[in-house]
Amino acid sequence: MTQIDVAAFGPAWARFESWLLSHSPADHAALRGPAGHEQLAGLESRLGFALHPELKALLELHDGAAEPVADPGSRTVLPAGKFLPLGHRLSGVDDIVMMYDVLVDVGEDNIEADLWEEDALAVNLHQCVPFALPNDGGVAFIDHRPGASYGHVYEMGIGSGDLSGTLWATSLAELFQALADALESGSPFLHYTPTTHEDASGRHCVEWEVRR
Fold this sequence. Notes:
Blueprint: H1 3-23, H2 25-29, H3 37-47, H4 53-61, E1 89-90, H5 93-113, E2 128-133, E3 139-143, E4 153-157, E5 162-169, H6 172-185, E6 192-198, E7 204-210
Antiparallel strand pairs: 1-2, 2-3, 3-4, 4-5, 6-7
Helix pairs in contact: 1-4, 1-6, 3-5
């Protein structure tokens, strides 16, 4: 991974985060502070390999997005922080460790089932690092296998049994650039179109509609 690749992430994320700050402050407020150096070192020790530089840069900015809390003046909880397609919320270090263990177990089960080619994502999940989770058993992760797919961003519906994976982008920089394009123009990202979730009190946050 070159410095040029790493440098591309900063502007892409800054543009995406700036849009949240200006247009969806509730989502922006859900972003946690940075993960500490010891946390990141512990994560890499647990994984047994170095984090992709773009994922490390993201965690150095924000240790995921916090779960929403109830507004004292409202009976409903605004689902702020689920600002990625399919309701994915950025994961912090602790959630990454938890979900990585799940990925490893799923990958081992797939190897034992002997239904996949050896280069399939489904049997190489021990070399993939989750970075966002929804509430339905899916996961968004970054491929850490050496080679052409290093850094690619995938979404996989583990809970639904969809283990082939869907390519979202070839890098985190490309992903957040594309998401910023969609948010600014109202155009789709893949088959997800940005819209607004609004509660009875008028508070709102980003939501993505699936359009087949």
